[in-house]
Amino acid sequence: MKPDWLDRKEYPFKSKYLQLEAGRMHYVDEGEGPPIVMIHGTPVWSFLYRNLIKILRKKYRCIAMDMIGFGLSDKPEGWSYKPRAHAANFEQLMEHLQLEDVTLLVHDFGAPIGFAYAIRHPEKVRSIVMLNSWTWSLSKHQSFSATSKYLVGPLGKFLHSKLNVSADTLIQDLFEDEEQLPEPIRQHYIKALGSPNDRVSTLACARELVGVTRWYDELWKERRKIQDIPTLILWGERDKLIHIEALQCWKKFFHESYVIPFENSGHFLQEESAEEIANYVSNFVQEEIKKRELVHHY
Questions:
Q1: Which keywords fit this entry according to its UniProt record (predicted)?
Q2: Residue 294 is inside which H or E element, if any?
């Protein structure tokens, strides 16, 4: 049952649910073809990918979940909301869908969630598309000092500072760069945070993003398993939440990466440049398919 605030013209997808121990996790599964799995960050939801899905589902199978606590998924009280728990939920969804040759499309906090899966199942992930994401233990020192409490840098500090503000203030500040964001669209992000009580649970996720260095460290130690996966990096250079230094780290991290900067865009490229992103993603996926076919041919 979709909530009454949801505009079905903006988000015209059939809702699907996977029952998890934590609650019902909502996702959409649209189109047919090579699978592209989209993972959102915090505190947004699959609505962020709606325009990408509308374009890409004509040639691809597009899957986008709402993490527990976000969007149309349940918002249970007392659940951990730790990144490790979100990653475990995502793995259950992938197991449920039984996908092969996946392109992971990650953004923001969705990157470590997606990479945790790719590290465990590198044979299932053929390519990665990354939009502005932070870098867990890819920080300059690559070690955990007192300052690594804010491993997520400006994004972590920002979310921490907003734990007690209203949902509309939070979304207003988050989408500060998106001056053209229409009010009805903004409301979809505000309303999806639920009641003030729900919000406490959702924003607990922001609180959990820091201080979980052990998990990030575990991912970092296994990094070699994903460094050779071909990766397309799309980066909004006006991002106030994630500094440009993170992009430099990612460029060094992946052995085969293609970087496309968006000079006049901020943190939410999906809202600003959906058509352009969809074209880049489609071309990249097609090129990777051709490359694999050539290798198999010879």
A1: Hydrolase
A2: helix 274-297
pTM over 0.70, yes/no: yes
Rounded to the nearest angstrom, the gap between the alpha carbon of residue 58 and the centroid of all alpha carbons in its chain is 22
Note whether 235 and 208 are within 8 A (CB). no
- Tokens read off for 35: 């699978």
Residue 206 tokens, joined: 């922001």
User: Cis peptide leading into 43, omega within 30 of 0?
Assistant: yes
CA angle 3-94-279, nearest 5°? 75
Tokens of 150: 């804010």
Q: Write out pLDDT tens, residues 189-207.
A: 988 887 766 665 556 566 5
Contacts 24+ apart (CB under 8 A), 122-125: 122/225, 122/226, 122/229, 124/94, 124/99, 124/100, 125/226, 125/229
